[in-house]
Amino acid sequence: MTRNDKHDPHGHGPADPQRRQLLATAAILGVAPWLLSACTAPSASTANTAAPAQPAGTGSATTTGILPTSQRRKLGALEVSSIGLGCQWVPAAVEGSVSDRYGSTIDRKTAINLIRTAVDSGVTLFDTAEAYGPYLSEEVVGEALQGVRDQVVIETKYGFSFDPKVAAARGGRDSRPEHIKQVVEGMLKRLRTDRIDLLYQHRVDPQVPIEDVAGAIKDLIAEGKVLNYGLSEPGIQTIRRAHAEHPLAAIQNEYSMLWRGPEAEVLPVCEELGIGFVPWSPMGMGFLSGTITAETRFVPDGDREFRVAVPRFAPDNLRANMALVEVVKTWAQRKNATPAQLALAWLLAQKPWIVPIPGTTKIAHLKENLGAAAITFSGEELRELNATVAAVPIQGDRLPPGVMQLSGVEAPPKR
To answer: Region annotation Disordered: residue ranges (predicted)?
Structure first.
């Protein structure tokens, strides 16, 4: 088992490992397996040999675990804690338990306690989606936040087609206005709330103009059911078009030291338009936590170990990419922090409107992650660190081909 973090259906897969991995990949975004038929798994893995966590230093960054209100950040006009909590869970093999997609399982009561501990520790932003489960994560989040709903911000996502009677994917994307409005009714019930603070389109629908999507959101905002909206992994022009219809609060994309793609176009557009940015997988699916080694092999486990299908974790690529982990560990020692804290602090230092949402199943890791807010860099340190990170070539794509093709999509023109 490895140190886990966020980001993107149930049951046991068939006997064939590649087919099982295909189903897991499809499940992460709620899409039909046929859509991801191009996906192939990396080299077969037989054992997980991750090293135990190795904290570097014992300063305040490793022990604080409380987010001060003075460090709140803005996603558009929405004020949130500087670090959020990603809640992406699917049913585990054991009934009554939930699993993240990175090899860790906890019972539902523990998941609820984790969320409540996050609230008590100053976290106000909680991220989920209808596709996570599907529905399960929203249900857990809704139950956990009863009694503290007015103290927090809930963000969730729509955009795929599910059969609500059996909680299973129908296949494909669906952002038709009538579908969005229907989906939101189900979300409100599962989240046990009367409004969604931030509602994302999970992936751009290539069949629906973004103007129609924004129009549906505006109707929901007028009804008070949605307060703010955003897009996840959209094309650049789609961001501009959506924002022109109604101001976007946030863009949610993968972003970390391991994947710096948003720096080219997405972050500049967000800065220009005053849109916040929420990085998913801020620790590179656990890679930057320092617990993964060159010898780590991810074991197929149905939909409960996504990294099996991710090219950058194939053995040869993983070995080459360890150079980045050494950079992170060196700087963590320099800043008296753990590697996980260093990775999160790096994100926080990039822009004041960036709010990472690391996920975890352990309260100790939650507290550790929140300690990142205490780490600061001088201008010279940040320039040096950025240059060092940029000098490490990363091998392997960040996602399987079938999932990659869902990112950066431009919505069709309005006719």
So the answer is: 46-66
Strand, coil or helix: what is 305?
strand
Q: Within 13 Å of residue 162, how many CA atoms lie on the same side as its CB?
A: 28
Confidence class for position 17, pLDDT limits 50, 70, 90:
very low
Residue 111 lies in a domain: yes
Q: 341-351 as b/e, with b when 16 or more CB fall inside 10 Å?
A: bbbbbbbbbbe
- Cα dihedral sign, 125-127-130-134: negative
- CA 338-366-388 angle, 5° bins: 35
351-386 per-position pLDDT tens digit: 999 999 999 999 999 999 999 999 999 999 999 999
User: 227-271 pLDDT, tens per residue?
Assistant: 999 999 999 999 999 999 999 999 999 999 999 999 999 999 999
> Residue 179's closest CA among 195, 198, 164?
164
Two tokens at 101?
């997609």
This prediction has a pTM of 0.87
233: three-class secondary structure by DSSP:
coil
Q: Residue 101's pLDDT is what?
A: 87
The residue annotated as part of the active site, out of 132, 135, 158, 229, is 132
Tokens 């059911």 -> residue: 225
As for how many domains the chain has, the answer is: 1
pLDDT band at 51 (very low <50, low <70, confident <90, very high): very low
According to DSSP, the β-strands at 198-201 and 168-173 are unpaired
What value does the mean pLDDT of the chain take?
A: 87
Asked if residue 212 belongs to a domain, the reply is no
Query: What tokens appear for 90 in the block?
Result: 């699917």
| Tokens encoding 244 | 């022109």
Domain, as residue range, for 154: 17-198+281-404
Residue 251 in any domain: the answer is no
Active site annotation includes 102: no
pLDDT (tens digit, 9 = 90+) per residue, 211-221? 999 999 999 99
Q: Is 295:49 a contact under the CB 8 Å cutoff? A: yes
Q: How far apart are CA 415 and CA 209, in angstroms?
A: 8
